[in-house]
């Protein structure tokens, strides 16, 4: 492992492990992105996947929000869709539309198009290089989070060929071709485990698995097609790196909370439709919870954001909570409102510990 500067703020790592801290740590999903003019300036000159593929650029945009706000973690600038790329699928980022696969996996018979046992270091070495460079350039200011998409969410994109409202084609596979679905999920899982272990070797200090479309499954399909693979990922990564906290964000999967507590994930991310108090009642102090302000709350004025932060912090309590939004930031968010969110979390959570 390369030699890195000593960490000056380890709040998020300590809270993930269940320790008490003087304030609640905070970061924001999609904190690097289009709402920042300095990100837009980089994107005006470079294509999305060129930023992802060029360590100097990826490091620059990863650190942009850290320079601007008092955040407690950085998340490496990349995308969940680099895994389908490593499996041999072409992914384009279409302006104003999002990701597009010109040639998705339309039928189970097309699974043979995916690369068998891809060389992850060869295919995704640019992400490792970006992590190593970013960790050096962060100079120990905050921990660096690595991430991957979850198998089910990635299966959705690979079959649909891009974003979709209901992932109908991918969900049809679960019933029409369950055996093929499992083969695709297992293949993706194997790559994800190797990829996440490689990210830690390259410098990631915490890892998040994004199951953004978990909420499209029901309790039974989640237990059959999502949970076993999420578990394999946690077990595989923990075997190699037991010290690295793991976060799972299964958006919309209300029914999965109890199941997820029983896995090796240290942190469970909640979206904004879940009630912090109710979630805490289910999980107790067994895991750390992360979230969960509605990203649209950032359209409100300063007072509205502050009150929302107070409610959220009161709901989660002072222990085992990492503050975040309940999903990613939007491109038209005002950066100054993000600042109010971050600063309010720090101020209010410190006050809460003194009453
Ligand atoms: O033109 C642009 O700049 C594209 C916007 C953008 C950005 C900034 C995309 C396209 N991806 C990203 C970066 C990104 N994506 C990060 C790193 C930056 C950070 O968080 O600060 C991360 C962690 C992701 C993860 C990601 N990509 C997820 C999981 C989180 C979530 O939002 O649920 C998903 C689903 C994607 C796919 C994706 N990539 C980009 C878009 C617009 C989408 C969503 C497409 C859709 O289904 O509608």
UniProtKB/TrEMBL annotation:
InterPro entries: UROD/MetE-like_sf, Uroporphyrinogen_deCO2ase_HemE, Uroporphyrinogen_deCOase. GO terms for biological process: protoporphyrinogen IX biosynthetic process. It catalyses: uroporphyrinogen III + 4 H(+) = coproporphyrinogen III + 4 CO2. Keywords: Cytoplasm, Decarboxylase, Heme biosynthesis, Lyase, Porphyrin biosynthesis. The record marks 79 as: Transition state stabilizer. Residues 25-34, 145-161 form the Uroporphyrinogen decarboxylase (URO-D) domain. Its EC number is 4.1.1.37. The keyword Glycoprotein does not apply. Its main location: cytoplasm. One of its GO terms (cellular component) is cytosol. It holds the Pfam family URO-D. Pathway: Porphyrin-containing compound metabolism; protoporphyrin-IX biosynthesis; coproporphyrinogen-III from 5-aminolevulinate: step 4/4. Substrate binds at residues 30-34, 49, 79, 157, 212, 327. Gene3D superfamilies: 3.20.20.210. It is found in: Cytoplasm. It is an enzyme of class 4 (lyase). Signal peptide: none annotated. GO terms for molecular function: uroporphyrinogen decarboxylase activity. The keyword Cytoplasm applies. NCBIfam families: hemE. Homodimer. Belongs to the uroporphyrinogen decarboxylase family. Catalyzes the decarboxylation of four acetate groups of uroporphyrinogen-III to yield coproporphyrinogen-III. This is Uroporphyrinogen decarboxylase. The lineage of its organism: Bacteria, Pseudomonadati, Rhodothermota, Rhodothermia, Rhodothermales.
């Amino acid at each position: 492992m390369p030699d890195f500067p000593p960490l000056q703020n380890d709040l998020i790592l300590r809270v993930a492990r269940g320790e008490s801290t003087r304030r609640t740590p905070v970061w924001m999903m999609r904190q690097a992105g289009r709402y920042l003019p300095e990100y837009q300036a980089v994107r005006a000159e470079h294509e999305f996947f060129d930023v992802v593929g060029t360590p100097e650029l990826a490091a620059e945009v990863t650190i942009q929000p850290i320079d601007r706000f008092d955040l407690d973690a950085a998340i490496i600038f990349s995308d969940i869709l680099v895994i389908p790329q490593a499996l041999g699928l072409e992914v384009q980022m279409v302006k104003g539309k999002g990701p597009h696969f010109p040639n998705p996996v339309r039928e189970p018979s097309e699974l043979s198009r995916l690369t068998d046992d891809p060389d992850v270091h060869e295919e995704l070495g640019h992400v490792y290089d970006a992590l190593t460079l970013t960790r050096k350039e962060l100079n120990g200011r905050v921990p660096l989070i690595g991430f991957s998409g979850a198998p089910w969410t990635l299966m959705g994109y690979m079959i649909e060929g891009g974003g979709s409202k209901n992932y109908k084609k991918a969900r049809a596979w679960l019933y029409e071709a369950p055996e093929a679905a499992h083969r695709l999920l297992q293949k993706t899982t194997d790559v994800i485990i190797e990829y996440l272990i490689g990210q830690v070797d390259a410098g990631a200090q915490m890892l998040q698995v994004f199951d953004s479309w978990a909420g499209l499954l029901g309790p039974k399909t989640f237990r059959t097609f999502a949970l076993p693979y999420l578990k394999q990922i946690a077990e595989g990564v923990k075997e190699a790196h037991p010290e690295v906290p793991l976060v799972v964000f299964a958006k919309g999967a209300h029914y999965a909370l109890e199941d997820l507590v029983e896995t090796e994930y240290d942190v469970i991310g909640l979206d904004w439709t879940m009630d912090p108090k109710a979630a805490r009642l289910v999980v107790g102090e067994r895991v750390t919870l992360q979230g969960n302000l509605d990203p649209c709350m950032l359209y409100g004025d300063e007072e509205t954001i502050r009150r929302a932060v107070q409610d959220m912090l009161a709901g989660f309590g002072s222990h085992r909570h990492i503050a975040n939004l309940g999903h990613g930031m939007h491109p038209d968010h005002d950066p100054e409102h993000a600042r109010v969110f971050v600063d309010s979390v720090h101020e209010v959570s410190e006050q809460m510990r003194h009453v």
